[in-house]
Amino acid sequence: MKEIKVIHHFREIAEAECPNESLNGRGCRYSVDQQLNESDKSVLMMTLYFHPRRDEKIGIGAKDIKVINHPEYRDTRCFSLVRTDGTIEDFSYRKCLHGALEIIAPQRAKKYREKFLTPKDSAKDSGCLDLPLDN
What we know:
This protein is of the alpha+beta class. It contains 5 helices and 4 strands; from the N terminus they run H-H-H-E-E-E-H-H-E. InterPro entries: DCL-like (IPR044673).
């Protein structure tokens, strides 16, 4: 059940980045352009390892993670990696979770992929959070 704890912790961070205040009456923990706290940043940096294009995403090196408005889907927010050279790259936390599930719980990976990573013509597939819950 370790994989469940990891997924729940990651979702807590992701949901802290909510795009509106309708999520169970809670507001957002992070505002746009705000960097994550050290604890959340550490978790996301570790999970970024499981992204299928992690080397491309990390590039020259990772410095920080912050919340941004997605460049293509303006009404949604997503996580972005701030590289050591100052460039910014958005990334899908869902693709990170899927990569981790393929290793630790392959039977769950297929269901997760079908639910969250199939094209649906929405910002949810871009790397963004359109909560209640990519790139």
